[in-house]
Structure formats: C-alpha cells, structure tokens
Amino acid sequence: MAFSDLGGKQSAWSGxxxxxxxxxxxxxxxxxxxxxxxxxxxxxxxxxxxxxxxxRLELGPHAEAEVVWFLGEAESKEQAxxxxxxxxxxxxxxxxxxxxxxxxxxxxAIEVRTPDRAMDLMLNRWLVYQTxxxxxxxxxxxxxxxxxxxxxxxxxxxxxxxxxEPSLAREHLLRAAARQFVEGDVQHWWLPLTGxxxxxxxxxxxxxxxxxxxxxxxxxxxxxxxxxxxxLLEAPPLAPGEHDRFFAPAVSEERVTLFEHGARALDRSLAxxxxxxxxxGGGDWNDGMNRVGEGGRxxxxxxxxxxxxALTGYAPLAEARGEVxxxxxWREHARAxxxxxxTQSWDGEWYRRGYFDDGAPLGSAASDECKIDSIAxxxxxxxxxxxxxxxxxxxxAVNERLVRRDDRLIQLFAPPFENSPHDPGYIQGYPAGIRExxxxxxHAAAWVVVAAATLGDGDLASELFGVLNxxxxxxxxxxxxxxxxxxxxxxxxxxSTRPHVGRGGWTWYTGSAGWLYRAxxxxxxxxxxxxxxxxxxxCIPKRWSGFEIVYRYRSARYDIVVENPHHVSRGVAxxxxxxxxxxxxxxxxxxxxxxxxHRVRVVLG
Length: 605
Hints:
The chain is built from 17 helices and 29 strands. It is an alpha+beta fold. Among the domains are: 89 residues, no CATH class; 76 residues, Maltose phosphorylase, domain 3 (Sandwich). The strands form ten sheets. Strands 5-24-25-29-26-27 form a six-stranded mixed sheet. Strands 6-7-8-10 form a four-stranded antiparallel sheet. A three-stranded antiparallel sheet has the order 12-13-14. The N and C termini lie far apart (61 Å).
C-alpha cells in the first residue's frame, strides 16, 4: 500500500494525471498551477494515475516556510496510516542528518585521489551507490522492473561491497544458498516474496556460489559463515528436452552448511564433453548462447577458466575442514581443465570460446562470425590457469580486434552474429552490434581491464578504464548526443554498429557497476582486503607520480599515500607505517580497530 503525504497539510489532492496537467498542459506548465485550480479529490481505478497533493502557503517579505513530503509504502492501509502518523511526529532535520550520516559511512568507507579525476568521481561513492541502491535493494530500473534476485547477479554485486558493507555480502551468501536444489543446481532467478523462480540448464549460475564464498572468506576471514545451516529446495528435475520451468519449489527438510552448498555446486559441475571442457548447457555467463549446447554436448572454454578459479579457490576451504579427498578431486579436475583448454582450444592467436553440439568451434579465426570473444581471453588471465605467453597474446588480440578507441568501446566479441550456419541461440535475435551480439557488454569489458592489470600493464588498464568510464562519454555536446544515457552511472552496454555507434543502453540496473568498481579499486589501485590485513598491490600508469587512499576501518582511519618516483606500473619497494620504513616487496598493513588515524606510505620501484 503506497502513500503520499504533505505532513497532513494537504488541502486538496487528485489521482488523475489529466486533471493536474490539463488537457493540453505539460509538466513545464501544468494547468493546476497556470490556471490556479483546486484539485478535485478524484481518486480510484481507471485513471491515468498520478499522486498530486496541494497545499497553500502565504509568505511575507523575507519569510520562509518548509513543506515536508512523505512518499512510502507498507503492507496494508492500516500500517501505511500508522507509518504516516509516526513520520509526521519525527524531528525531520534529525532524520535527514541520520540518513546523510548513513550514506557518508557506507559510501565514504573508501576515498581515493588519483591523477585521473574522472576515475575518482566514479570510485568515490557513485559506483558503490549504484550497486547498493539499485542492484541490491531495488533490483529494478527503467530497463528491468521485476524486483527478482538473479542467482549469479547479486552474488557478484555484493563482492564489491566487502569494504563498505560486508554484512550485506554475508547475508546474501546465505540467501542465495537457500535457492539451491538438493541435486546441486539452482534457481536462475527468483521472486523473494513467493519463492517462485526459474529452474534452467544454465551452467555457470551454481559455480558463482562457491566462487563468491571463497572470495568473501578470504577478504573478511569470516570462516564461521561456512558452518551456517541453510535449507535446500525440492522439486522434480527438468525433464529431457525441457529447457526451463517457472514454479515455486518446496523447501526441503534437509539443511546443510553453507560450505556444503558450495561443495555440492562444484560436484555438480564436473561433467565434461568430448574436448574435456565443461558442458555449456543452456548457456554459460552469456545466456544468449542458449542453443550452443542444446543437445547436451556443447562445451565452454570460458566456463573451464571460471570453474578452474572456483575449484582452486574452494579447495583450501575443504582441506581446512578435513575434506581432503574432495579437495584432491577438485584440484585434479582443475588441472585437467587447464590442460584441455591448452591442448584442444588454442586457436593460434587466442582461445576459442567453446564448441557447438556437433563439435564445430565457436570463437575461432575460422568462423565467419564471433571469431574472437573477450571473456575466453580475459579469464585465461584472471583465473591464473592460462599459459602466460598465450594469455598475453590472447589479450593483445583483444586489444587489437575488440578495443575500438575511436568509438570508445570494447566489444564483447566480433563480428556479430547475423547469418551463422550454427544457431548460437537467442543472441542472434538481437540486431548486430546491439547488447551481447557484438556490442560492448560493460560487465565483460571490465574483465578486460582486470586482465590487463593482472598482466602488469597499468597503462593499458587505466586507458581501458577510461574508455568504460561514463564520464568520458559526456565530455562534449556531440558525445552526449551520441551516448544518450546518464553519464554518472555504469551502463550495461554500448552499441557498436551504425547508426547507433557509441549509444549506451540499460543503465542503473547492471552488474557492470560492481565490476567496474572492483576493476578500478582492486586491480588498478591494488586495494585488497585479507581479513584484518590490507594489501596494496597497485598496477598504475607509469606516468602517475602516485595516488592516495583513505580507508575507514571500523573506528580507525588509514591515510595511505602511494608514491611512484621511478614511474613504474607495479612493484612495491618500501612501506612506511607509523614512521617505520621497511624495504619489502609486499605492502601488507595490519588493521587495528583503535579509533586512531594511521599514516601509511608505500613506495613503488
């Protein structure tokens, strides 16, 4: 039950937009103002709806008055009325100060100052705000208004909030685990109030759970979360030939630890195809490739890299719990995946994307369309599993073939699908160069930035971050007219073909916000939490003379200055903490919750 209120001072109101605007009125000059009308009080169904409240103020010379407007919702009319009455009695100035303090605490947990002002503007507050307010809380935006959770979606989002709101990440790990079936697979997305959601054959969803759990435990040292009991879901599995099913599953009486949820997800993901690679199923990270493996035999190179990262990241958690045999099986499988990619899927200058059911390659130089796909290259680096020389060559191919500097975009793959003899799936239904079909998919483009920094190329990583930074798309009137979307939030995609080259789409509700934040903060500036230790491992442009980070750790404040006197991209030479200078190759700072301000100096060289 939604409500609107002017602190009880409304003298008239209407639920009809036409009455407020007038027959030929506009928002710039609504009839109710231009003609001095009094609203009629008309409300109810069948109207072009709005909420218009009217009150009258009389001001003498130099006088001022305040109008407080409440907008909200509650479960019922009675609860809404009670909430309105309570809010009317609040100290509104104090309430506003509390809200501001809350946002300052969350969004100000980390502040950076670099030579790149546009980077600072996005890393300070805006990307965190977009991730938290839109992706975690609202789960809605202009382009998607469902309120549903995506299984892989919010698991990635909360990983960007570990410094600002780690409790939200913990809470969501348990929430997501509760959407896993006893067989180990998960709901692709679900509605929180009813539990209704979609069971699919998408292959990567479940792997994000152990991957996120391992990252959370590493960053927070909160191993206790692994013992939290979480129920499973029960429902008949998908029938042969059934691609997906939307329904409300039953909650099983079986409850297992969060660790076991992650372990079952990995155990479920070990099947491989003819090339020794993971089965792509109904699509891996790219849902639009839902018919590459429709027959159950298609394989994914990207998923091999990602699964390798999840298996090797989760194995230490298993060993610490005495699950030695499980860890051994996972490590062995990870080694086999890396070997299979190198022996079966190196295409000469880059890694293939996968294989169709009939064994035909996807993402090969021999292909007419989708010759090279960025995520198979970036994750060869991010996973640490790819041959180093090959991975560098693959990223060079991405830089040459997919980074379009003149258009300021990074394509997901090229060329787009249009007339492929092999049907990749609904991705081919998008026009060429739009969204996943050969446009920039910013989520994946952020991985290109991460990979560049991982390889040690700070100049390229910083340049590509600038290409993705929405501020850089609003530097002139012509750029604004081309970009067409908000220049202060990350957008999901940019179009790559005429007449829409450089046009943005799907802003606000996009997982690219969290990944762009992590690419800038973790990969370029090198800010990495490890429990009560902070590691600083930058990979910055050689031209930078340094940068600064202010980190608020509980009651303490850490003022960190990174100096780059020799103009290198990375490599720590000295660390000074509390006036004590140490020659070292690692900047590891012990964090203390003592209410004090600590000054840290890191010298690269």
